[in-house]
Structures are given as C-alpha cells and as structure tokens.
Design a protein that fits this description.
The protein contains 10 helices and 12 strands. It is of the alpha/beta class. Helix 1 packs across helix 2 (about 50-55) and helix 1 packs across helix 3 (about 65-70). The longest helix is centred in the C-terminal third of the chain and has 18 residues, at about 200-220.
Amino acid sequence: MLILLPPSEGKSVPTRGKALDLASLSSPELTAARSEVLDALVALCRDDADKAAAVLGLSPGQLDLIDRNADLVDAPTARADRIYTGVLYDALDLETLSAAAKRRATSRVAVASSLFGMVRLGDRIPSYRLSGDASLPLVGPVAAIWREALPPVMTAALGRGLLVDLRSGMYANFWRPAPELARRVATVRVLHEHNGTRKVVSHFNKATKGRIVRELLEDGADPRTPAALAATLERLGWTVEIGAPGKTGTQLDVVVSEL
C-alpha cells in the first residue's frame, strides 16, 4: 500500500542540520527534475524579490519566505515528517505513533511536493515555499515538470499494492495513475453530514484524513483493493460509501456527522 499525502503550505524551519543533498533523497531518478526546479526557484528569489512575491503568491507579511527560498541550497534540512505541518499532519501526529506504525509510515507514506516531486518521510529537506500551481521563469509550470518526470517513479513506488490517494486537486495534477492501475487506486473524500445535507469542510477534511492515515498505520492492515480498504476503514469505525470504479480509480466517501 502506498499512501500519498498532499504537502502542507506551512512548514517548520530547521535551525540546524545538513545542507540539502539532492542525491540522498529517495527516488534518485527525480534528481535532474528536482535540480531544475530548485535552481529556478533559488534564482528567482535571489534576483527579483518583487517578481518572486507575485509568482509565489505572497502577502506583504510573508516576504521573509523569499529570503528563505533564496538560501535553499545551504539551508539546514530535517526529515520531511518534521518539516510538513498543518491540520492533516497535526492529526496524523507521526511522532507519537508506535514503533511498528513508524516503520510502516517510512515504507508506505509519500508526500507530493512542488519542489521535489515526491518525498518519503525520512528524506531530509529544507523548509521552502512553492505552491503546486506556480509557474517559474525559465522552466514554466512546476506541475508540467512533474507530470513528465513522475509517472515511472510513482508506478515503481506503487508496485503491486494499493494507492490511497489523499492529495488535493492541485497536487493530483502532478501525476495521475495510468488506466491500467485504476483497479488499485482509491481516492478518499470526507463528507460532513448534518440535517440530511452533506458537504466538504476543508479544515475537517484534512484532520479526518490525518486520523485515517494514523489508524491505518497503527492497525497494520495492507488492503490491496479499494473495496478491501473500505472494509478496513469500516472495521476501524468509519462510515464509508464506495463509488463506482472509474478510469482513474474508485472514490471512497468517508461520512462523518461531527466536526
């Protein structure tokens, strides 16, 4: 099973640690693309702060992120599971997982990244700011770079297992599983049901996904199909509705009544 998470916009900032070594990251096949995006981002932030603020969608109170990006090559790094923060990662609470669940997280969880394409939780990366819809001077939209580079890497990472795709739409644009993988792809949507009406609530959607991943890692089950994943989640106490299989996989709706 491969659980694919979105990154967080907010990130913790290491104060010490080794500098970034692209060659040490998992999936070394992505090194060339990672270097291309990294060089373009650093150059933009070093050479034109005003343009960088516009490209990165920064508010006046976030301009310090330009300097942070400009220093990415030499900045301290930490494990990705300590860099990514926010609602989903707070609910997942990786640091408090059991030892067995932490081992499963290392092998079963990956994070979509606009700067690195895909990282594993043990990869050492710096804190950065780059949105998945950004278009950098010289290289263009980062999503286009990853759409070209990621398919063979992600297919290899998935192997014969089930993909549990929890990415947001922006990051889903980086890589879409080929049709022949569809029977082994489950996307998860969280719906809040109140007075007979269902809707997606962004904050709670993220928190619930974090709790779902945590429970899957602690439980240790390794479902191989969307239906088997749904059965596992139901056993763990979730209410799940399975959609019809499609060309891109099967959608599972997790329905919750309390926020």
